Amino acid sequence: MVENTLSFFVALFGALVGSFLNVVIVRLPEEGGSVVFPPSHCPVCKKEISWYDNIPLVSFLLLRGRCRQCRTRISWRYPLVEAVTALMALALYLHFGLTLLLPIYFLFSAALIAIIFIDLQHQIIPDVISLPGIVIGFILSFVNPFVTWQDAGLGIVFGGGSFYLVALGYYLLTKREGMGGGDIKLLAMIGAFLGWQSLPFVVFGSSLLGTVVGVGAMVKQGKGGKTVIPYGPFLAVAALLYLFFRQEILLLFVRFILHR
């Protein structure tokens, strides 16, 4: 009974944070955008949204996905982000329990969720998320039982440095930018939170996911090698996979090395 109650409140807290992430996703890419002012409002009629119309998931269902004032359809991204963040909070609670790892990696996961949706829509990764994320991840490594500060420091250096070299090499060979600076900073942030040991899987896993999705996008868009897809979401998904399946991934890696 207590366990179910805790799970409910953890998921509820996640949904509330997801509601805030929606504000971040919409406003951060805007020039001079603020996540505080003005209060939540309809992007079409500009009417301020009442608190009872801003309850995560519930309000969307009660309003049938439309603004109460102008009846404009509300994007499905809003309940999707709230649901994903709620499920992420619950998954982290079930995985780590009520330990220090729960708030540390909920903060990390929330940042990744915001990055995923911003990069998908705008093809940018805001420095205001990744740069503080690098610093916070390193500071938290001093109390994080998951990684040491040495692992986090090397994760920042190797994560940012390796992608920078790849991006530089690609540009020198093709005279085109194949990887943005946002991806480099994102991988450094991932290294800060997960340690340098996560980087081989994150790079490999994101490349594999990106290749599969990229081939599909090339076929659909018909642009061939000029097809552009954001890479940040694949890095974020691979990082989350490592977070939840770290032991299994490292075990597979060791077995691969020993059987070569």
Q: What does this protein look like?
A:
This protein has 9 helices and no strands. The relative contact order is 0.09. The protein has helices at 2-27, 58-62, 77-96, 101-122, 127-140, 149-174, 181-194, 199-221, 232-258. The N and C termini lie far apart (49 Å). The protein has 2 domains: 1-95, no CATH class; 99-260, no CATH class. It is globular. It has 260 residues and is mainly α. It is 68% helix and 0% strand.
Shape: globular
Task: Indicate the radius of gyration in whole angstroms.
Answer: 20 Å
- SS-based class: mainly alpha
Percent strand equals under 5%
Number of strands: 0
Largest sheet: none
Helix residue percentage: 55-70%
* Count of discrete structural domains: 2
Provide the residue-averaged pLDDT: 86
Q: What's the assembly state of these chains?
A: single chain
H/E topology pattern: HHHHHHHHH
Distance between the termini: 49 Å
Q: Can you count the helices?
A: 9
Q: Low-confidence parts lasting 5 or more residues at pLDDT below 50?
A: none
Entry summary:
Helices cover 68% and strands 0% of the residues.
Q: Tags for this entry?
A:
260 residues; mainly alpha
Give the topology.
Layout: H1 2-27, H2 58-62, H3 77-96, H4 101-122, H5 127-140, H6 149-174, H7 181-194, H8 199-221, H9 232-258
Helix pairs in contact: 1-3, 1-4, 3-4, 4-5, 4-9, 5-6, 5-7, 6-7, 7-9, 8-9
